[in-house]
Write a structure and sequence with these properties.
With 98 residues, this protein is mainly alpha-helical. The chain contains 4 helices and no strands.
């Protein structure tokens, strides 16, 4: 799943990307919204720009729209759309718990 997602993203969005398969023991990995899906048996890849580790305004009132990079946001959105299309094709029925 990670390879499929990375490949789709890299083909569709001009952004650097990395992938890893990891466990809940990695600090911060359970902070994301995807974790609640994993705990109920759904496959749930996590997509992150690691903002928690490098962006001083993360989840603060100072995180305002003037700080967003709309060009990159658009590229990420296109990449994620491609990822969803490929994962849906490769893993039909993956919307059901396992």
């Amino acid at each position: 799943m990670v390879r499929t997602a990375l490949g789709a993203s890299r083909r569709s969005a001009a952004l650097p990307s990395e992938g890893v398969t990891t466990s809940p023991s990695v600090p911060g990995i359970t902070f994301s919204d995807h974790w609640s899906f994993r705990t109920h048996g759904f496959h749930a890849p996590m997509v992150t720009d690691t903002a928690l580790n490098r962006y001083p305004h993360y989840h603060l009132a100072s995180d305002t729209r003037d700080k967003l990079d709309y060009e990159r946001l658009a590229r990420v959105t296109l990449g994620l759309a491609a990822v969803l299309r490929e994962l849906a094709a490769e893993y039909p029925g993956s919307g059901t718990a396992r």
